[in-house]
Design a protein that fits this description.
There is one protein chain. The chain has about 350 residues and is α+β, with helices and mostly antiparallel strands. The chain has helices at about 80-90, 130-140, 200-205, 215-230, 250-270, 300-320, 335-340; strands at about 15-20, 25-30, 40-45, 50, 65, 70, 95, 105, 110-115, 160, 165, 165-175, 180-185, 210, 240-250, 280-290, 325, 330, 345. The chain has a six-stranded mixed β-sheet. Strands 1-2-6-9-4 form a five-stranded mixed β-sheet, with helices on one face. The two termini are about 25 Å apart.
């Protein structure tokens, strides 16, 4: 049984730590790999990334597997959340073995951040090591194949998408070969996820078979967005983050290719994308429990295509799951508030 989430890749777990209210609107999301780790890679396309340990994921370098990936709010300050995850992993004896004692490990914890500073009102309210520890503990406590909370949770708590509220979304697919491909996305884009002429989400236009909103609903939504834009300061920095994963047995170079092609899924759902004030980053993981269907290098193509597709679907789900925010840090209406059930897939 699948739950249409990143956790459909057997062994992966997801945990959120969320802070809201009293000046807070931020959080951290951790993807925890199974014991023994997962082959990992990254592809950074945005011009203003905030990351940690991404060089370790280069196929030319020594680290082959990681035990966790951290997605966090708080801009570069929020990368401190990875320290809490690293400490927890050390306590479990998980990481790169660097000495004769089983406890002599150095956990490699790649991380990336989104800009949400001040979205709750207090510029200094951002994730720290304790937030990261809370998120990884939540992941470890979850059951195998558990559903993943979406919307304004974890790293998506303070996320926005253009003038809309953003958040966390996830999706998965099972290929004819039996290989599973899945994604989790934090949508915090400078670009828009919404077609201004129709009110339909770009990601749903790509998926096809959409139902367009009534004209009166769309006009009311446009007026509301214009009103919000006149009051809110424009978001100075943004980022869309994703983790795309598979249970296929892939090399580190193949996993890096998967990270790169998964960016196509962002480009289908966010316009424009990969700008200088975005930090768009995709991590890719392969747990290696299922062989690719076919002996040649082209057997990877189905996995690559599915990775981009599930990223697009995850973005749509993030925006649809998000709730509106009206606070001291700004007013961010949700897609549901503006359009309700008047548009969507049939």
């Amino acid at each position: 049984m699948t739950v249409d989430a990143l956790t459909d890749v057997a062994g992966l777990r997801v945990g959120h730590a969320t802070r809201s209210g009293d000046g807070w609107l931020t959080g951290t999301t951790v993807v925890l790999a199974p014991e023994g780790g997962a082959v990992a890679a990254v592809d950074v396309r945005g011009g203003g990334p905030g990351t940690k340990e991404t060089d370790a994921l280069d196929p030319r370098n020594v680290v082959q597997k990681v035990d966790a990936v951290v997605l966090t709010g708080g801009s570069a300050y929020g990368l401190d959340a990875a320290s809490g995850v690293m400490a927890w992993l050390e306590e479990q004896g998980r990481g790169v073995r660097v000495g004769p004692d089983p406890g002599h490990v150095v956990p490699v914890v790649p991380a990336a951040c989104v800009f949400d500073l001040g979205r709750g009102g207090d510029f200094r309210a951002r994730p720290d090591a304790a937030t990261g520890r809370a998120a990884v503990e939540a992941a470890a406590a979850s059951t195998r194949g558990a559903a993943v909370h979406e919307g304004c949770v974890g790293a998506g708590t303070g996320a926005v998408a253009g003038q809309l509220k953003g958040g966390v979304g996830t999706a998965s697919a099972v290929l004819d070969s039996g290989v599973t491909v899945a994604a989790l996305v934090v949508v915090n884009a400078a670009g828009s996820v919404l077609d201004p002429e129709t009110g339909v989400l770009y990601g749903e236009l790509f998926q096809g078979r959409v139902r367009y909103p009534e004209e009166r609903v769309h006009e009311a939504a446009r007026r509301r967005l214009a009103e919000v834009a006149s009051k809110n300061a424009p978001p100075p920095l943004n980022t869309t983050l994703a983790v795309v994963a598979t249970d296929a047995d892939l090399t580190k170079a193949q996993v890096q290719k998967m990270a790169g092609t998964a960016h196509d899924g962002i480009a289908r759902a966010v316009r424009p994308v990969h700008l200088l004030h975005d930090g768009d980053t995709v991590f890719a993981l392969a747990t290696g429990t299922r062989a690719l269907d076919g002996d040649g290098p082209l057997a990877l193509n189905d996995v690559l295509a599915a990775g981009a597709d599930v990223v697009t679907r995850a973005i749509v789900r993030a925006v649809r799951a998000a709730g509106s925010v009206d606070g001291p840090g700004g007013v961010w209406p949700s897609y549901g508030e503006l359009y309700g059930e008047s548009s969507g897939q049939r």
